[in-house]
Design goal:
CATH class of chain B: Alpha Beta
Helix content of chain B: 25-40%
Distance between the termini of chain A: 64 Å
CATH architecture of chain B: 3-Layer(aba) Sandwich
Oligomer: heterodimer
Largest sheet of chain B: 8 strands, mixed
Strand order of the largest sheet of chain B: 2-1-3-4-6-5-11-7
Number of helices of chain A: 20
CATH topology of the largest domain in chain A: Pyruvate-ferredoxin Oxidoreductase, domain 3
CATH topology of chain B: Rossmann fold
Structural class of chain A: alpha/beta
Order of helices and strands of chain B: HEEHEHHEHEHEHHEEEEHEHHE
Strand content of chain A: 15-25%
Shape of chain A: globular
Largest interface: A-B, 69 and 58 residues
Helix content of chain A: 25-40%
Largest sheet of chain A: 8 strands, mixed
CATH superfamily of the largest domain in chain A: Pyruvate-ferredoxin oxidoreductase, PFOR, domain III
Chain lengths: 617, 339
């Protein structure tokens, strides 16, 4: 019998799905996110998965999670802590208990809560009865048994092991009820996901409905929630991860510049999706080259750039280290090239699936010789599209490699992206030369930008040679002349500095002057913005400057920094950007807040820190 | 590519600036041979790209009037792969040495060969590091005394032909720098081959490894110490043309014509196009003094070319995909319209 529904309206809610890494938690998370986007909510997601593909079942090492933050209000982060936790086994519960809000709803698969599983998860006592879960709204759902019973009832000849793979749809069903979602949206997701396997469509749909019906009948879920559509948003949106947005930004730049896209790359966590996505886009003329190693990844791209492609390579920190010498080759040959570094926790292999911002110094200085590049950092999953586009544009127009820094958090996290036509993006003008241009010389430069021209093999009358040996300015002949080397070194640096004339000024969120300026760069934007906004709403004099352009810095950087009584630079490293600022603007005092745990900032810790800094004498 | 329509001469490929190899360096005749045969390809002079790594050999792009890229130590195979994949219309040549392609660039070398990208790779094998002044290389014969092996090397040398076969190479040839006509013949075939062609040039380094190939390729001995292989012809060698190669069981043996009733008909006949590379591998491995060293084109087998296969996939995708431009892509899949 259906019960009376009590509906509570929420501004926002954070849901965390957690289970074994084979339990389909990422899929259910995506399904729930898409449904939320469809009904007009703002959202931000983050998957939290282990680097082992299938660690032993039921252990902490094997827990895979997916967090989604949906809102009626604007949402900037996947959320500090969850309002609803789904834990398919005791390990999933144990791994996530500290990320759950007091009084949260915790949905567990009671069928997996037995002594065998407690032991695997490392619980000494039974967590259901030892007080661990006191104060939470605990829903003990027999997910495994009800899923198996549903599947067996269909008589499709599916065994229990396969049936268990549809448990994630039972969870989805529970949540569609809990958040008053139209179950049809979940069904459509299943139809499209499994369209080539009708038997799986039937099975998953039946389990989805079973979960929904179960929720309807139990007392523990008597209260349901509603998050109304976000106000003030108009237009077309899509849910996108940072890696996909990066790949698409490069393709957009390729289309707009008229240069076909070439990506030479070697698979590496957490950057592989860029290579995977671009390898699917052959209909747009994209060429992907899965190289034998990181070095070949960048070197094939340098070759492709010499031949006239918009060339890019994607990697993470360890790969950036291997590419160092070749980046120098792109610097000295003055060829356009985009190097995407999806940063992860290091050094060496470090924590491949965890985020960090510790490659900044490597990007700036991690090469032999004076080897300046343009350095850009994306700050949200969706704006990876814009900054990948800008990285390509600046590289093509200024004839110098550009490093785009993202991180594992942006790469795998998602949010809604406003869809704009490619024609609305800024124009890109590659520095091509006409055949038989009698004025052409390999290192002749544009007076304003100092960029050389780009003559392509195959063009008549422009035969020339480039290479890693120092070249004479203008003629491009090999030169060991001491004064020429000094001049060329200065030109390469000055060329990058002059890019400052072609990028936007640094924005400040909040007043242009005040008590405290919070400074961040790249992927910490969501948390820093949320913390600053919260404090501004309380009347605190605090503003945020989140940097996307690192080298060169925007022209007004000094002015921005100089207008505040205190400055705190927040980074997920041990203080790389703050030291870069100290070097460039030694006249200011900088406080720093550094975190190096492989985890993003939490809004609450930032607010505490900022308040503490404001109170200090 | 070889549509013999565009006329060029050797002069189109020479440069005004001086060539700076040591006097007597084997690089000179190799350069001359390549400049000589480029006009035969019928390719416009603007469509050649010469790519090199680092080492004496790798100065080559400065000495030939084409587009050129003098890159990083060991990385020329990767750079050349990118150029050819980006623009298959170009005739791409890689110039490398035994240090550049067998040591630091060994990985890129085998993967270039495995992918079978249509690149003409010329390997200057002088069996020594010349530019860094005399350290042993991966092809230096075992026991050789060099600056870094004062008691003799204790490493087994690589045979570039074995590596090429091991990486499923479709073209391998070996020539000697003192035989201009042999080099020209072989470079012509390499240029014509569709796929990665590896030409090992036994090159002399007058300064650090002088006469390293003299025992097999010296003017007085080379007829007896090498065998020039030609497609479709029996394997005969020797100043008197009296020796040949015979397959006994699964082993190649040197035999004398006329001895024990052996005639030309008993000898192996060279088949460069045999898809099965077993015999090519055996020929590649022949070393003096047990055998004559095999010269000429040892393997030339037509197979799928990487950039051609990629082109087909792109054309297929363009024909079948609904996504024709980036706006289509942005609007594909789940798009939510909020009003």
């Amino acid at each position: 019998m259906s019960k009376q529904k009590k509906v509570v309206e929420l501004e926002d809610v954070v849901v965390k799905f957690a289970g074994d890494s084979g339990d389909g938690m990422q899929l259910t998370g995506t399904q729930f996110s898409d449904t939320s986007a469809f009904v007009g909510n703002d959202l931000s997601t983050f998957p939290d998965y282990p680097s082992e593909i299938r660690a032993p079942q039921g252990t902490i090492a094997g827990v895979s999670g997916f967090q989604v933050h949906i809102g009626h209000k604007e949402v900037q982060t996947p959320g500090d802590q969850a309002d609803v936790l789904v834990a398919l086994n005791p390990a999933a519960l144990k791994a996530n208990m500290k990320w759950v809000k007091p009084g949260a709803t915790i949905i567990i698969d009671i069928d997996n809560f037995d002594n065998k599983h407690y032991k695997k998860a490392g619980f000494v006592e039974d967590p259901i009865h030892d007080g661990t879960l006191e104060g939470y709204n605990l829903v003990k759902a027999p997910i495994t048994n009800l899923t198996r019973a549903t599947i067996n009832g269909l008589d499709l000849g599916i065994d229990n092991k396969t049936a268990d793979k549809t448990r994630n749809q039972f969870v989805a069903g529970l949540l569609y009820w809990l958040f008053n979602r139209d179950i049809k949206l979940g069904e459509e997701f299943i139809s499209s996901k499994f369209k080539s396997k009708p038997i799986l469509v039937d099975a998953n749909m039946a389990v989805l409905r079973a979960g929904y019906n179960y929720a309807e009948t139990i007392e523990a879920m008597a209260t349901t929630f509603q998050i109304k559509p976000t106000k003030g948003r108009k237009g077309k949106f899509r849910n996108i991860t940072g890696n996909i947005a990066t790949a698409w930004g490069l393709v957009a730049a390729s289309e707009r510049s008229g240069r076909s896209l070439f990506l030479g790359s070697y698979p590496i966590t957490p950057a592989s999706e860029i290579l995977q996505e671009l390898s699917k886009l052959k209909s747009l003329g994209v060429k992907t080259f899965q190289a034998e190693d990181e070095i070949a990844g960048i070197c094939t791209s340098i070759g492709a750039s010499f031949a006239g492609c918009l060339a890019a390579t994607s990697t993470s920190g360890p790969g950036l280290a291997l590419k160092g010498e070749a980046i120098g080759l792109a610097v000295i040959t003055e060829l356009p090239l985009v190097i995407v570094d999806v940063q992860r926790a290091g050094p060496a292999t470090g924590m491949p699936t965890k985020m960090e911002q510790s490659d900044l110094m490597q990007a700036l200085y991690g090469r032999n010789g004076e080897s300046p590049c343009i350095i850009i950092a994306a700050s949200t999953p969706a704006n990876c599209y814009d900054y990948a586009y800008m990285a390509a544009k600046l590289s093509l127009e200024h004839m110098t490699p550009t490093i785009l820094l993202t991180d594992g958090y942006l790469a795998n996290g998602s949010e809604l992206m406003h869809i704009r036509s490619v024609s609305s993006m800024p124009e890109i003008k590659p520095r091509l030369v006409e055949d038989n241009d009698s004025e052409y010389e390999p290192y002749k430069r544009d007076a304003e930008t100092l960029a050389r021209s780009w003559a392509l093999p195959g063009q008549e009358g422009l035969r020339h040679r480039v290479g890693g040996l120092e070249k004479s300015n203008i003629s491009g002949k090999v030169s060991h002349d001491p004064y020429n080397h000094q001049k060329m070194s200065e030109i390469r640096e000055e060329k990058v500095q002059r890019v400052a004339n072609h990028i936007p000024e640094q924005e400040v969120y909040g007043d242009m002057q005040g008590d405290l300026l919070v400074v961040g760069w790249g992927g910490t934007y969501g948390a820093l913005y949320s913390a600053v906004k919260e404090m501004q709403d309380e009347g605190t004099s605090v503003s945020l400057a989140q940097f996307n352009y690192i080298k060169p810095l925007p022209k007004n950087t000094k002015e921005v920094l100089g207008n505040f009584k205190k400055i705190v630079v927040c980074e997920l490293n041990m203080g790389q950007f703050v030291n870069y600022l100290r070097m460039n603007f030694p006249e200011y005092q900088y406080k720093e807040y550094n975190k190096i745990q492989g985890l993003p900032f939490m809004v609450s810790e930032l607010v505490n820190k900022f308040n503490q800094i404001l109170e200090e004498k | 590519m070889s549509t013999n329509t565009i006329k060029t001469t050797k002069k189109d490929f020479t440069v005004e600036d001086p060539v700076k190899w040591c006097a007597g360096c084997g690089g000179y005749p190799i350069l001359s041979a390549i400049q000589n045969i480029l006009p035969n390809t019928g390719v416009a002079k603007e469509k050649f790209v010469f790519v090199s790594g680092i080492g004496c050999s790798s100065r080559f792009p400065y000495y030939i009037n084409t587009y050129g890229f003098h890159s990083l130590h060991g990385r020329a195979s990767a750079i050349a792969s990118g150029i050819k994949t980006a623009n298959p219309e170009l005739s791409v040549w890689q110039i490398t040495g035994d240090g550049d392609s067998m040591a630091i660039g060994g990985n890129h070398f085998i993967h270039l060969v495995r992918r079978n990208i249509n690149i003409n790779l010329t390997l200057f094998n002088n069996k020594i590091y010349g530019l860094t002044k005399g350290q042993y290389s991966p092809t230096t014969p075992k026991g050789s005394k060099t600056k870094t092996s004062p008691e003799g090397t204790i490493e087994n040398p690589f045979n570039p032909g074995e590596l090429t076969m091991g990486a499923q190479g479709t073209f391998f040839a070996r020539v000697i720098d003192n035989d201009l006509s042999m080099m020209k013949e072989v470079f012509n075939e390499a240029a014509e081959h569709k796929g990665t062609s590896v030409v090992e040039v036994l090159q002399n380094c007058v300064i650090f490894n002088n006469k390293v190939h003299e025992n097999i390729a010296g003017k007085d001995v080379k007829d007896d110490h090498t065998i020039y292989l030609e497609h479709g012809k029996p394997m005969i060698f020797g100043k008197e043309r009296d020796k040949g190669l015979m397959l006994k069981g699964n082993k190649i043996e040197v035999v004398r014509l006329g001895e024990n009733g052996i005639t030309e008909k008993d000898l192996m006949v060279h088949d460069v196009e045999n898809p099965d590379d077993t015999t090519h591998y055996m020929l590649t491995r022949m070393t003096f003094p047990e055998y004559p060293v095999a010269m000429g084109v040892i393997r030339k087998y037509q197979s799928t070319v990487y950039e051609g296969a990629l082109h087909l996939q792109i054309e297929e995708a363009k024909n079948t995909s609904k996504i024709k431009n980036v706006d289509d892509l942005l609007n594909s899949g789940n798009v939510f319209e909020i009003e």
